[in-house]
Amino acid sequence: MVHLDDLATHDELFAWTGRLLTQVLEPLARGGTAHYAPYDWRTRRFGPSRPLPPAPVMVIEGVGAGRRALRPFLAQLLWMELPHEEAWARGRFRDGEEQREFWDGWVEAEARHFAEDPSRPYAHGLVRQLPKGYEVFPGPEGTR
Fold first, then answer.
1. Which of 41, 72, 84, 101 is the most exposed, having the fewest neighbouring CB atoms within 10 Å of its CB?
2. Where are the domains of the chain?
């Protein structure tokens, strides 16, 4: 699993596509082991490089995983159906007061990202959280 939070930075909330392609997706596409340095959100710098060996299934998790530049590499795109306000509240709760300033900028950056490069219309499946577990149903792309 690759968490996009490991590739984004405070200064490059959505400008991580090149890192994901060159450090992760391209080596894996060649059958090799990927190596990437996860970003530390507290120290604001990249940590030591870690290996990511090839696997039969690779999950790329995070906001922007369905962007235009990545879709050719994706076998499936799942979209988590969650109201923005709820998602942002979960993030603020998770990150606490220390990252409050970050979240103020994130809300605007996320809206701008999806206005320029929407992912949901290309989702093969939509995922909805239930009181217990999740429900997956066909997405816009999955119904074509």
1. 72
2. 2-143
